[in-house]
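Quick illustration, no need to memorize.
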Amino acid sequence: MSPTPPPPPSTSTAPAAAGRAPAGAPRGTAVVTGASSGIGEASARALAAAGFHVVVAARRVERLEALAAELGGRAVRLDVTDDASVAALAEAVADLPSVDCVVHSAGGALGLEPVLDSDLDRWQRMFDSNVLGVARVTQALAPRLRASGRGHVVVIGSIAGSEVYPGGAGYAAAKHAVRAVTETLRWELHTEGIRVSEVAPGMVHTPEFSLVRFDGDAERAAKVYEGARPVHAEDVAEVVAFVATRPPHVDIDRVVVKPVGQANGHVVHRPDA
């Protein structure tokens, strides 16, 4: 019997390893807003570990400088609600070889009142930081993202972008708008090779988030997590790094990250209560 001939060389045109960088290889520059604490800070660390040069941006620049020094990155003061500040961010990264990824983590929640008792000035502030902040920073960095040839916009959304809960109308309205902006960007940029992703966390143990929401009331902020087993900022950051390190032809549209014990925005199992 004659030996079985070897199989012919593969003619597949699938990019099996296209764009895959070796572990630890440089991945360009990632700009992370809201990087002075919480998910933003954790995401900056995770992206640096994944090989990105990281620019950390937030209002509290004194915190950022230590983080930037630790990560070998750059610190830039940024208020996403201020046009001049956002323009200054674009200027501050103009000398870098490229800007390849922007992670929008700035924003937050204010208050937990029913609609009829809400302070609408707070709603406006939430909309400005969460929604318009994403638009401002993306507009400012768009030329660099386009020029990179592998641009990626990663938005930290929320499960509040797809559901509502009592007392959360202002924040949910803002995060619903964030999701709308993110999905529209994906439609508008997909022919340019720019990826757009949303990472939508549920309950995350980020005490500063709740402190801000409740005007510094530490006792009320602590009750948010009382008896529960939330995820942590580092858990979300690992997902951000995963999303940002896919090959350039792969886009992760939306990832929802919740603790096992969270059914939805306001139903949370508290086994340790």
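The radius of gyration is 20 Å.
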